[in-house]
Amino acid sequence: MAIERTFSILKPDATRRNLTGAINARFESAGLRIVAQRRIRMTQAQAMKFYEIHKDRPFYGELVSFMTSGPVVVQVLEGENAVARNREIMGATNPQNAAPGTIRKDFAESIEANSVHGSDSLENAATEIGLFFDESDIVG
Ligand code: ATP
Ligand code: MG
What we know:
This protein is an alpha+beta fold. Helices cover 39% and strands 20% of the residues. It has 7 helices and 4 strands. Bound molecules: adenosine-5'-triphosphate and magnesium ion. Adenosine-5'-triphosphate is lined by residues 59, 63, 93, 111-112, 114, 117-118, 120.
């Protein structure tokens, strides 16, 4: 096991319902440390680039509008096995399939408005962190 960094987003449905602290408490109690964090309004260009991998999926346009519909909190989480650990804490993409006790089971509104994003590999984590943070923003 190794100390890793992963990229996380608290999505607009979470900031709208004032769930920033409640969700951050889940990360911290699972042993993930928030080593960088910023609240931003994602631009359309940022959201399109971030979700480029889904550009041919039918939900792409809706997803970009959702991600730009309100403030988001972009974060870097650090800890043992952080990429996989964060995916476990988040739960399945569709909250109906998410395990009890996961963030998405407890907080998500729908498959789209599912409260959080977490990188799905160490390689993607590094790329995604680089889209939103400079190395000097991250204080481990
Ligand atoms: P994320 O990348 O946000 O961490 P994920 O890796 O669990 O989520 P992906 O398959 O990468 O899921 O989908 C990215 C995001 O697109 C989902 O989190 C969700 O907001 C949205 N999404 C995925 N599938 C659908 C769908 N069928 N309908 C609407 N939105 C969807
Ligand atoms: Mg994904």
